[in-house]
């Protein structure tokens, strides 16, 4: 075979292939009961109607469509279908509606009127729906509903279904309802095969027993587990749980939280803080650690309790708090410290307890007795009970068991201490929560610095007795009585032996006394919080009506865009033309700048394919950056992606000396990329349009990307 024969063969094969491809792209009429030509109403088209046997049957590229009536434009490879329209693609996709437009060139279908699209796992219903067979995507933009078997029903303003990866993407007014929960969100990605849901923007998950809020989260609708980050919060049974990251399992009624945790008990007016917590709702228990702090909120004076670990158990009307390992207590009028603290919020009893030592190598093996401080008095013993009146929020009494020791410094001497020791101590408080009366029971010993009315030291009183009763006034001993006294002497200080100034077991521990809430953490090791990665920022998908689709629609028009039936019902407006030059290059001279610095950062853009500009305030006045457009009148939409901290503004202004503002949008920036949009109308006033990002303060840092200004509502 010579070269000419080979060339001719190739041309023939190419022609046949192209011709076959073109034939495959042609819409085929498989069956019609009646064919009519109506050039007046449908120029260049054939009108096909059903008969009594069956509907009009249309085929294209493996898809079948049935309807009661069809208008077929053969030259444009376009068909309109009316009445009981049914479309099937393979064995998986079925769509019914009242009306369908379909182009064999774009392979884009537009359906309206009670549209229902089903696949083996879900059903989409909407008043209007677009179905792109090339991308295998369905899209609605005027409200729709998706029913997903066991996962429930989802409604939204905008919805998009990616059939190849079984993914739904919902935007605006998103609501998922199933038997167990209701989810409300702004941006919601849902995978129909796994039941995984990803939430972005303000979102709420409501169950019969709880409500979870977050601005970024994940939820497994099948297993009913998930996690929430960014301003995360769970509300249930008079409890509010807040933290940087919250995990929840609705099957087990379990939740855990990490970093900057706050658990508020609204019924008992208490707050628990820390950096790791676990909550078992069914057991009414809460465990918290890492700088754990329990706060009993009182009208006049709150009580703060800190320990390595805090456990809260019991029903709301009978809460019990256990703080263990290096536990401390702080109140303005009384503070304490022990290995463990037990508090019963119903009975008002607080116990300071020693934990049994395991071995000499244990970190708490050094025996330090529980201790309480009340104004000038230090009290220690093997166990201390503090009894309070929950109604009056006042301390009633104090019990110290075994080796009870109370010490107060004699304020007028350098090394003198009033001391009382015995087997047991019973203390009573006055209405000001000040220790008023102390009774030392059994084997009482005491050392008092006795003074006259002029506060002159008479001598040092040391005695032993069966018991002692002391009355205090303003921190000093007002009077005391000894019962069954064994011995006692009042000795001048000059003749008092130095070695006898302290009773056996004397241990002045003023340096351990917490003076503030911050002092409760003085013994804690440095805090290192884990880095929470969580979910990536919301990444907007490419437009459904993207450039690829526009090219297909343009091709279908064959150079006659005004008569392009494939472009009907496609929301293509003048918004496709961006009036901004260099929309992401804010360092360009086209962008005018005042009191700001623009640099190229390492921050990834929302799509992750590039990096954004960083705009930093530098001057004493509000910084701003803007472009002036030649447009003098019309309605415009200004949108831009931003993230950062603080506030800024989007503005439409007159580009003349007075800079009159047509419209403004206050933007509260967040750590996530978000697209902000401002719409304003400018009348013909002889000035150009200025598009401004303003109010950038000194040292403010804002990341910007994708500025877009388009004219809207223009015919």
TrEMBL record:
TM regions (residue ranges): none
Signal peptide: 1-21
Keywords per UniProt: Signal
Coiled coil residues, start to end: none
Protein's GO biological process: lipopolysaccharide transport
A cellular component term, taken from the record's GO annotations: cell outer membrane
GO molecular function: glycolipid transfer activity
A Pfam family this chain is assigned to: OstA_2
Domain Organic solvent tolerance-like N-terminal as annotated: residue spans: 24-186
InterPro entries (alphabetical): LPS_export_LptA, OstA-like_N
Protein name: Organic solvent tolerance-like N-terminal domain-containing protein
Organism whose genome encodes this protein: Pseudotamlana carrageenivorans
């Amino acid at each position: 075979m010579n070269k000419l024969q080979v060339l001719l063969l190739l041309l023939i094969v190419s022609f046949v292939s192209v011709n076959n491809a073109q034939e495959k792209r042609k819409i085929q009429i498989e069956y019609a009961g009646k064919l009519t030509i109506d050039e007046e109403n449908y120029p260049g088209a054939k009108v096909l109607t059903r008969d009594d046997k069956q509907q009009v049957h249309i085929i294209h590229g493996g898809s079948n469509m049935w309807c009661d009536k069809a208008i077929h434009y053969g030259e444009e490879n376009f068909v309109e279908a009316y009445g009981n329209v049914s479309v099937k693609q393979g064995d998986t996709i079925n769509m019914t509606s009242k009306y369908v437009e379909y182009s064999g060139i774009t392979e884009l279908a537009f359906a309206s009127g009670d549209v229902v699209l089903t696949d083996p796992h879900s059903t989409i219903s909407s008043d209007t729906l677009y179905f792109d067979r090339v991308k295998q995507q369905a899209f609605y933009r005027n409200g729709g509903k998706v029913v997903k078997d066991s996962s429930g029903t989802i409604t939204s303003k905008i919805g998009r279904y990616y059939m190849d990866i079984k993914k739904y993407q919902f935007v605006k007014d998103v609501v998922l309802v199933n038997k167990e929960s209701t989810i409300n969100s702004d941006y919601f990605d849902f995978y129909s095969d796994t039941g995984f849901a990803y939430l972005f923007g303000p979102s709420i998950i409501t169950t019969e027993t709880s409500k979870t809020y977050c601005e970024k989260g994940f939820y497994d609708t099948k297993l009913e587990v998930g996690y929430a980050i960014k301003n995360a919060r769970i509300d249930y049974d008079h409890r509010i749980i807040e933290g940087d990251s919250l995990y929840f399992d609705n099957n087990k009624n379990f939740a855990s939280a990490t970093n900057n945790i706050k658990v508020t008990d609204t019924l008992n007016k208490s707050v628990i803080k820390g950096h790791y917590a676990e909550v078992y709702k069914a057991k009414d228990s809460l465990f918290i650690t890492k700088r754990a702090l329990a706060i009993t909120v009182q009208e006049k004076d709150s009580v703060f309790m800190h320990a390595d670990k805090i456990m809260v158990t019991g029903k709301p009307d009978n809460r019990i708090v256990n703080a263990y390992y290096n536990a401390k207590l702080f109140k303005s009028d009384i503070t304490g410290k022990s290995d463990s603290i037990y508090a019963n919020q119903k009975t008002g009893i607080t116990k300071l307890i020693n934990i049994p030592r395991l071995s000499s190598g244990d970190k708490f093996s050094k025996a330090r007795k529980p201790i309480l401080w009340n104004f000038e008095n230090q009290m220690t013993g093997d166990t201390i009970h503090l009894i309070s009146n929950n109604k009056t929020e006042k301390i009633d009494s104090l019990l110290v068991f075994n080796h009870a020791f109370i010490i107060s410094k004699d304020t007028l001497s350098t090394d003198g201490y009033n001391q009382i020791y015995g087997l047991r101590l019973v203390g009573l408080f006055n209405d000001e929560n000040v220790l008023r009366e102390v009774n030392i029971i059994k084997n009482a010993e005491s050392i008092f610095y006795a003074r006259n009315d002029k506060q002159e030291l008479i001598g040092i009183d040391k005695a032993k007795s069966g018991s002692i009763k002391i009355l205090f006034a303003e921190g000093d001993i007002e009077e005391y009585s000894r019962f069954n006294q064994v011995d006692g002497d009042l000795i001048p200080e000059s003749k008092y032996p130095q070695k006898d100034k302290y009773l056996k077991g004397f241990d002045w521990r003023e340096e351990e006394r917490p003076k503030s809430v911050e002092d409760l953490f003085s013994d804690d090791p440095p805090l290192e919080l884990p880095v929470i990665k969580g979910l990536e920022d919301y990444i907007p998908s490419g437009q459904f009506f993207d450039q690829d689709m526009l090219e297909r629609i343009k091709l279908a028009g064959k150079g006659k865009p005004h008569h392009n039936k494939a472009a009907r019902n496609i929301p293509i407006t003048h918004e496709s033309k961006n009036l901004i030059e260099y929309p992401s290059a804010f360092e360009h001279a086209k962008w005018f700048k005042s009191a700001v610095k623009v640099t190229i950062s390492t921050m990834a853009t929302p799509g992750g394919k590039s990096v954004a500009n960083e705009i930093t305030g530098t001057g004493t006045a509000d910084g701003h950056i803007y472009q002036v457009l030649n447009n003098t009148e019309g309605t415009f939409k200004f949108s831009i992606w931003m993230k950062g901290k603080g506030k800024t503004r989007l503005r439409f202004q007159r580009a003349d000396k007075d800079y009159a503002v047509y419209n403004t949008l206050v933007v509260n920036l967040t750590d996530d990329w978000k697209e902000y949009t401002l719409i304003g109308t400018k009348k013909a006033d002889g000035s150009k349009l200025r598009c401004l990002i303003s109010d950038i303060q000194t040292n403010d840092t804002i990341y910007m990307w994708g500025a877009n200004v388009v004219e809207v509502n223009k015919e």
